[in-house]
Amino acid sequence: MTPARWQALLEEVTLIGGVRGAAVVSAEDGLVVHEAAMDGVATADVAALATALVRRAQSLLQVLGDEVPRMVTLAATRGTLVAVQGKLDLWLVALAEPGAELGRLRLLLGDLAPELG
Amino acid sequence: MTDLPLAPPDPGHAFLDLGERLRLRGQLEAALSVALAGAGRYPSLAAAHDLVGRIRADQGDDDGARSAWIAALECDQGAVGALKGLAFLAFRRQDLAEAERRLEAAALEAPRDTTILAALDRVRASQPAFREEPIQFDDPDAGILLFDAEGLRLAGGVGGAAADAADIAAAAGLGLVREADRTVRLLDLGECRHILVEGSRARLVAAPVAPHGGVLLHRPVTAPAGRVVAMAERAVAAARRWLEEAR
Known about the structure:
The complex is a heterodimer of chains A (117) and B (247).
Chain A: H1 3-14, E1 19-26, E2 31-36, H2 43-63, E3 71-76, E4 79-85, E5 90-96, H3 102-112
Antiparallel strand pairs in A: 1-2, 1-5, 3-4, 4-5
Chain B: H1 14-25, H2 28-41, H3 46-58, H4 62-75, H5 80-92, H6 96-109, H7 114-126, E1 144-148, E2 153-156, H8 163-186, E3 192-198, E4 202-209, E5 213-220, H9 225-246
Helix pairs in contact in B: 1-2, 1-3, 2-3, 3-4, 3-5, 4-5, 5-6, 6-7
């Protein structure tokens, strides 16, 4: 995938109302591969924290006989973090404000994540 | 719901095919003789009990059908035909909660079977209004687990999994809640409400019950995400009361 395609994909996510930014993250090392409009937030922090959260979620899911999580959503009082599994150990991560169109965001991330890689 | 296709017989045993043919022709007594003889000869064969269940259901003997399908599940917990059959019986007696639960289990075993998903939709649509599932911390099969601030299981379970798995899930649930707390603190997101984890088979919600621990809700992936989250929020409120009383 070309950088231009990465950018187009992430900008599509940030067009959804209430989405503060989006990034492609490598789950192996928690580093940012590509990002878009993550204003006011350190993208590297988001990537590292999202990766750690996904690992914890995976541990829990495996106890219950499942495999790698397809989607992890952290809902907090001042925002929501959504991470969706893509290909090649890449994750599509988005940060949204409270009241964002979460249903639409989940669907779009689910549609776009398979294109990663 | 009543036209839900039943599982075809296993081709490895001739009596299954014969019994099914007789059933389809309406020769139910003959079909039952064949099926009972087969089930007697192969008591650990789920398909044999499933066939008995179908014939009994056709005869209007719901109790007999239920016993046969329960026997099939004892042979094979994932016997799709038995799960569908039990869902059918539950639907017939308007026990929509059991019908939904059995169909959800069947959907997990046969995720591409569109007849199951369609039946699941029909069962959910048949419910006159939103039905709140009870929050049961004392029932390990309810899929709700309560853990303390040290990751020890206080009550509940993760729905059919062994007690050991529930204890491990409690420890892992606390780890996830703590990681979520760290994330919201460092990203200045306020307070953590919950974490929704979606796998290929299950949806889980972990939520803090500060400062005492947290709750974990385990549901099949067929359960709508919003409904799982709503139930988790009710579980958190119930957990607060439970913990206050326990203290």
